[in-house]
Amino acid sequence: MTAYSLADDLAVALSLAAEADLVSLDRYRAADLDVSLKADRTHVTDADTRVEKVIREQLDAARPGDTVFGEEYGGTLGAGRVWVIDPIDGTANFLRGVPIWGTLIALVVDGEPQLGVVSSPALGRRWWGATGHGAFVQQHGEEPRALHVSDVATLGEANISYNSFVGWDDEGRLEQLTALNRAAWRTRAIGDIWSYMLVAEGALDMAGEYDLKPWDLAPIAPIVREAGGRFSSLDGDDSLETGSALATNGHIHDEVLAITAR
After folding, report:
1. Which DSSP string corresponds to 19-84?
2. Total-model pTM
């Protein structure tokens, strides 16, 4: 296996995000957008499939020995170097014209997410982070700035997002969600990838939800961690197969887990 530096891999990922943005923005609010339902009853658009195809083609050329695991065309999340792709995170928003959506790209090495890129062109923002290389956000093409989580010390002072009431309900966790809402200073359901990026920016102190896949989780972890926060499942596990996410500023992580973990 060819040895690539993480800095070089990050440059590839950022280039992939730029290519993806061109495709997705071209289809955003398009009158002829093709929309269908997958077997799991979630929506897929021609933008989802086009973006993933473009990323796969670029990776075949730039990293021919690596594996690709994507939402639309599958793959295997195993050992070695695996690029994990969510071509359009927030497809429901995308097809309704809500600007909270984006392309998620991660590199996972032997099961550990090493870099993540989140590009939300309708918001004019791109976030990225790589192990040992920090985390950054770029807005409307301006100079990137480093990301830092908040210094809020307790859940009682925290501004949090739980993302989806239905997701917590389906998991039988409404009691925990109620307790979390009562314990926090302010609660929101911002939803999708933006809530986690707001944790990395220090605007939110916690974001968490259920019903997630590895392509939802892998890109978030390096960004939040490199911004100084913590990332796990809502039960405190680090695996990408847990199906839930908890991102915090680190200071309140254990306090949240005391409420949410089984």
Report:
1. HHHHHHHHHTT-TT--EEE-TTS-EEEHHHHHHHHHHHHHHHHH-TTSEEEETTTB----SSEEEE
2. 0.94
Give the integer Cα–Cα distance in Å for 160 and 208.
8
Residue 221 tokens read as 């972890």
DSSP labels for 100-147?
Answer: --EEEEEEEETTEEEEEEEEETTTTEEEEEETTTEEEEEETT---EE-
The residue ranges of every structural domain in the chain are 6-146, 155-260
Task: Classify residue 232 by its DSSP letter.
Answer: E
pLDDT, one tens digit per residue, over 5-46 is 999 999 999 999 999 999 999 989 887 888 876 656 577 888
Answer for the pair 127, 111: CB distance below 8 angstroms, yes or no. Answer: no
Closest by CA position to 100, among listed 120, 118, 124: 120
For 6-146, which CATH superfamily applies? Answer: Fructose-1,6-Bisphosphatase, subunit A, domain 1 (3.30.540.10)
